[in-house]
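Preliminary data (for renewal application), 2-phosphoglycolic acid complex.
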Amino acid sequence: MRALVAANWKMHKTLKEAEDYLRRLLELVPPDPPVELAVFPSFTALALASEMLSGSPIALGAQNGHPEREGAFTGEVSMHQLADLGVQYVICGHSERRKIFGETDEFVAAKVRAAWAYGITPILCVGETLEERRAGKAWEVVERQLSVAIEGLSGPLVIAYEPVWAIGTGVPAHPKDAQEMARQIRAWLSAHFGERGEEVRIQYGGSVKPENAGEFLRLPEIQGALVGGASLDPESFWRIAQGAIGGRPSE
Ligand code: PGA
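Predicted structure:
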């Protein structure tokens, strides 16, 4: 299974900065890279990114999408509108959206369903807080997030395991813990969806950097990474992607 290495820009970059970034990334990435790369700009840069990435090996993703097709939802952008722009992936249930914007598991489930309905692959984010991990409840929390968000597997899916305490802190999970969680997620997928569950890619996210990317990307249970801070520079993002290829990430 080809790994998916994703650059979640979060709320960063003006149009000019986005353009400079994408131009550089397009220079760095060969026509047929051994890992799949995807970039997730802010909504303001999506149209530009869609144009610049079209025909390139780099996929386009959105950081969020509303499940309704259209309507009175001031400030929202629908999956339908994202599909219209050529968006291929959408992040659903990122912990920042759950925590800061109060997204529930049920709302995340609606997003996952809507993404499939419009032909977009959801990247479902799951992960426990530090308190939940310390209380021995990490799997319980992740299992609840999975079982509410994925009632049926109606399309291609990516799951990003992102322990909340590792996001943006500079302190990643221990690769052994990430591996163990990914193994449990995989077992859950197989139990619920049989062989179709095997097609789901499981990413690790949380303080992935060029220096540690290989430790996660070469784990047998992990097929990619969702990268925030260290993806904001194209050289750094490309070095992270190379961590999936084997050998030392190039300097
Ligand atoms: P980080 O963010 O790489 O900055 O820790 C990861 C994420 O939120 O997806």
